[in-house]
Amino acid sequence: MRLYPYSKIQTNNLKPLLISARILGLLSYLLFIGALVVGLIGLLGNSPTTYELSGGIQATWPAQNTAGPAIILALWSTVSSLCILAFSGLCAAVVSCEYQYTSAHK
Questions:
Q1: Quick one: pLDDT at residue 56?
Q2: What percent of the chain has pLDDT over 70?
């Protein structure tokens, strides 16, 4: 079992395009996983901060609001990863059609 994208596609003439489709597919998967991690860290990382002041007094400041930017970054990363995955799928489809066309005419 091979774990890289488009492992069942074969080609004789378009090897660089197939390699780039595989690299783009892997990049898309990694970007999607990164988007999930950033979104979860942004949502779960909002905890208040306690500071020690002079004389034994402690002050609690509200958490920085990082949820909004994290969600926006996660959304844009998800959209980008889906666009990259669609483009890599299109490249793999071209390679597959070329292989079927050239193998049928031999």
A1: 78
A2: 92
Mean pLDDT of 77-100: 94
Residue 10 belongs to some domain of the structure: no
Flag whether 41 is in a domain. yes
Taking CA atoms, 73 is separated from 38, 45, 63, 66, in Å, by 8, 15, 19, 11
Query: Hey, what are 11's tokens?
Result: 């080609």
Structure tokens that stand for 17 in this block: 């395009």
Count of domains forming the chain: 1
Instruction: Give pLDDT tens digits for 18-64.
Output: 999 999 999 999 999 999 999 888 878 777 777 777 777 887 777 66
CA 33-35-62 angle, 5° bins: 130
Task: With respect to residue 36, please indicate whether it lies within any of the assigned structural domains.
Answer: yes
Residue 22 domain-assigned?
Answer: yes
Residue 47: partners with Cβ closer than 8 Å, 6 or more residues away: 63
